[in-house]
Amino acid sequence: MAAPSRLLIRGGRVVNDDLSQVADVLVEDGAVRAIGRDLLPPGAAPAGLRVLDAAGKLVLPGGIDTHTHMQFPFMGSRSVDDFHQGTKVPAPPRPPLRSAPPPTPLPPPPVKEEMKILAQDKGVNSFKMFMAYKDLYMVRDEELYAAFSQCKEIGAIAQVHAENGDLIAEGAKKMLALGITGPEGHELCRPEAVEAEATLRAITIASAVNCPLYIVHVMSKSAAKVIADARRDGQVVYGEPIAASLGTDGTHYWHREWHHAAHHVMGPPLRPDPSTPHFLMNLLANGDLTTTGTDHCTFNTCQKALGKDDFTKIPNGVNGVEDRMSVIWEKGVHSGKMDENRFVAVTSTNAAKVFNLYPRKGRIAVGSDADIVIWDPKATRTISAKTHHQAVNFNIFEGMVCHGVPLVTISRGKVVYEAGVFSVSAGDGKFIPRKPFAEYVYKRIKQRDQTCTPTPVEREPYKGEVVTVKSTE
Ligand code: URP
Ligand code: ZN
Ligand code: ZN
């Protein structure tokens, strides 16, 4: 990366999750050093200071996409967007211990031990469990119980892909037997109830363990309602809708062109009920849902075509990273469902809090990393695969006109995008180790352990008769 620059972002409206103020922002050595009115006297032009005019624009904390799969080997293929092309920002975190070449031919440590090492020494404070993908990733209830217990022990947050894998496998057989081999079969074999049931089951198990839980890719009204109800019942659970579930719907699975339908295949699927995106956005606006990701996992048409005769073989995944902020601004803020502060909360701040990066990330404040976007809320752009910067040859938001356009993107004090031009090299990104026991999620958990642990009832021992049970052999 080039030498750290000094930047002054002048006159913009600085938006955090709790307030907005018109102010200048001074950036030095990758961090925010000062925020205030008129930091630079009129006419002054100190050497080595670059001034970015943000008058009439918003100055936002950089977005945090909570869920992506770059260069991910999956379903016989590998997702086409790598860390450089797919984000033009982060570098891959170090690979999991299990795939590191062992120094001796010793067997890898048990998973529980690996989780502990990752949390204590490697800066990993969340673990994702799959309830779907039978015979591949799927774990059963007792394994979830064990994994959640270990998460709690080491101060991690448990994440789940919530779908009933057994029901999906049976449903898929049924659809194929009916002669339904196209992408619509993907949704038909895993309707909303399959997602909602697993969501409730995961919440029930997490509650039994008193472990904080994070539900990735919330795709349906039914699953979102389960999460909202659980939060109202006091559970420590967070829901992550994604750009896809907030921006489009599952009617595409019935599209006449096979490739169009196949490019929307992901799990859990987009829902055919066209009111789903509005519903999820309303819950995101009012606090029932907490963060937003994308689950960005892209496959080109020729890769999707692995499932041309059988929908179960279509590699699962859709795009989102590049368009998440614009889709949420358009459908959330421009539509009037949420204000600019809630936008910052759901695209950045809440993720930083849940994953223990706050206030280094997720806030524009003195001392925070200078990850900043200068945002034009009035400008519009039309999303298209023809103009996007991703490797994938399809965009599920094709043709969507979005208000809200990033003008300048600053990563750790460096301008990485401006006026359509990227200034990044592969490897510029940085893995940020995260500490366990994030206060935002663990304060309540710890207090409950102290005050909500059941105790036995004090009684006199029973002294009466006890029936004799005869062996039935
Ligand atoms: O279809 C999806 N979601 N692909 C990525 C893997 C996953 O389940 O998150
Ligand atoms: Zn998943
Ligand atoms: Zn995923």
How does this model look, in words?
The protein has 473 residues and is α/β, with parallel strands linked by helices. The chain has helices spanning 83-87, 111-121, 141-154, 165-177, 184-188, 192-209, 221-232, 243-247, 258-262, 276-286, 301-304, 324-334, 340-354, 439-451, and strands at residues 6-15, 20-28, 31-36, 49-53, 58-61, 73-74, 77-78, 126-130, 157-161, 213-218, 237-241, 372-382, 401-411, 414-418, 421-422. Strands 1, 2, 3, 4, 5, 12, 13, 14 and 15 form a nine-stranded mixed β-sheet that branches. The protein has a four-stranded parallel β-sheet with strand order 8-9-10-11. α2 runs parallel beside α3, α3 crosses α6 (192-209) and α6 (192-209) runs parallel beside α7. Residues 89-96 have low confidence and may be disordered. N-(aminocarbonyl)-beta-alanine is lined by residues 69, 161, 217, 266-267, 295, 297, 316-317.
Compact description:
With 473 residues, the chain is α/β, with parallel strands linked by helices.
Please specify the SSE layout and strand pairing.
Elements: E1 6-15, E2 20-28, E3 31-36, E4 49-53, E5 58-61, E6 73-74, E7 77-78, H1 83-87, H2 111-121, E8 126-130, H3 141-154, E9 157-161, H4 165-177, H5 184-188, H6 192-209, E10 213-218, H7 221-232, E11 237-241, H8 243-247, H9 258-262, H10 276-286, H11 301-304, H12 324-334, H13 340-354, E12 372-382, E13 401-411, E14 414-418, E15 421-422, H14 439-451
Parallel strand pairs: 1-4, 1-5, 8-9, 9-10, 10-11
Antiparallel strand pairs: 1-2, 2-3, 5-12, 6-7, 12-13, 13-14, 14-15
Helix pairs in contact: 2-3, 3-6, 6-7
The structure holds N-(aminocarbonyl)-beta-alanine and zinc ion (2 copies).
N-(aminocarbonyl)-beta-alanine (URP) binds next to loops.
